[in-house]
Amino acid sequence: MKKTVSIFSSLALLAGVMAGCGPQDEAKPKENENEGKTEVSEDGMPPKPEKLVVWEDVKRGVALEPAIKAFEEKYGIKVEYKEVEMATKQRDQLRLDGPAGTGPDVITVPHDQIGQLVTEGLIREINVDQAVLDTFTESSIAAQMYDGKLYGLPKAVETPVFIYNKKLMDKAPETMDELYQFSKEFTKGDQYGFLALWDNFYFAHGVIAGMGGYVFKNNNGALDRNDIGLNNEGAVKGTEYIQKWYKELFPKGIIGENGGSAMDGLFNEGKAASVMNGPWAFQGMRDAGIDIGVAPMPKLPNGEPVKTFMGVKGWHVSAFSKHPEWATKLIEFITNEENAKKRFELTREIPPVKSLINDPLIAEDEGAKAVAIQSQYAIPMPNIPEMAEVWGPMATALQLVANQKAEPKQALDEAVKTIKTNIETNHPSK
């Protein structure tokens, strides 16, 4: 669960969004002072810069190097990269280095930071051909959108999947109904058929959204902070389904702050046949000697997929770049099929490139294939700053439900009321 903790730590930082004060005007491509015309090459691109600078995540440069080399050979533009921690340091350092003129042309950040970066004027909208967009899964492109505009291209995705102990379960079930029946028969004493951290909204969202709930209404790529669907009919049904598992089959020990470590312990000790967890958990399970199988989440009782939250790492053009067109060309190049495949080989980061889902390299990697397939049903975590106000109230509501201390409708109504109040207080309308 270390990865989950880092996700929430990153999201918590969104609460301190600064007012829009970025260099939108200064960062626009500058026109030639002579006659106000912009120089362009025959292919419609501006003159080539001598150099572009990229900030890559730590310990990931090895995957960027072959892509850079190929780009340099094709376009004759020198590309330098620097490894800077992705979760918070790239954003924080860009605030200083960008205005000083010492920042990069391209950065990489988790998609849930896009709203804040746009609000602060740190990254710019990009324009790419439809053929480029069609390279990627629809959900991964949606993650790069803010207020209906595109601000990056995706490089890697992660989302929770179904993980099972092959010694205890022959194969992954197709439906949650099958899993429920298996769990009823298997669960006895300190053995459990299936475990999930559904008092944690990051994981519970998959059930709630699959039943028809939503966080913020998505209007063609623009999230409406005033339209919250976390207490609608579908959300209530999803939460009732969650309550059923806690009431009948889940142990009380996986509720609350220590729930993640308790669940991991049960699975790694061979006491749980299956769990819902993410790719960050694979290695620890294998290190514990568990022969794991991995599959997309089984379908819900209504026939819909579990619509898990998805995290997307992307490439973005700095608002301070003097060469935004070429910076955009660079991120198109380093995310293409060939370079995405090479990145997976070197880092095991799973690319949201549609053509690679059935590529033997990924198809023969059970975990990667499961994440790739599940990501097609997943919903990107909302990337607007107001999302920071959702986690706390939803955690409270889900824990009340899990502990049988409140009915789903009552708990969700109270959560949404609190979310709306906090949004109005901490993110006043302009």
UniProtKB/TrEMBL annotation:
<dbReference type="GO" id="GO:0055052">
    <property type="term" value="C:ATP-binding cassette (ABC) transporter complex, substrate-binding subunit-containing"/>
</dbReference>
<comment type="similarity">
    <text>Belongs to the bacterial solute-binding protein 1 family.</text>
</comment>
<keyword id="KW-0472">Membrane</keyword>
<keyword id="KW-0732">Signal</keyword>
<feature type="signal peptide">
    <location>
        <begin position="1"/>
        <end position="19"/>
    </location>
</feature>
<feature type="region of interest" description="Disordered">
    <location>
        <begin position="21"/>
        <end position="48"/>
    </location>
</feature>
<dbReference type="GO" id="GO:0015144">
    <property type="term" value="F:carbohydrate transmembrane transporter activity"/>
</dbReference>
<dbReference type="GO" id="GO:1901982">
    <property type="term" value="F:maltose binding"/>
</dbReference>
<dbReference type="Pfam" id="PF13416">
    <property type="entry name" value="SBP_bac_8"/>
</dbReference>
<dbReference type="InterPro" id="IPR006060">
    <property type="entry name" value="Maltose/Cyclodextrin-bd"/>
</dbReference>
<dbReference type="GO" id="GO:0042956">
    <property type="term" value="P:maltodextrin transmembrane transport"/>
</dbReference>
<protein>
    <recommendedName>
        <fullName>Maltodextrin-binding protein</fullName>
    </recommendedName>
</protein>
<dbReference type="InterPro" id="IPR006059">
    <property type="entry name" value="SBP"/>
</dbReference>
<keyword id="KW-0762">Sugar transport</keyword>
<dbReference type="GO" id="GO:0015768">
    <property type="term" value="P:maltose transport"/>
</dbReference>
<keyword id="KW-0813">Transport</keyword>
<keyword id="KW-0449">Lipoprotein</keyword>
<feature type="compositionally biased region" description="Basic and acidic residues">
    <location>
        <begin position="25"/>
        <end position="40"/>
    </location>
</feature>
<keyword id="KW-1003">Cell membrane</keyword>
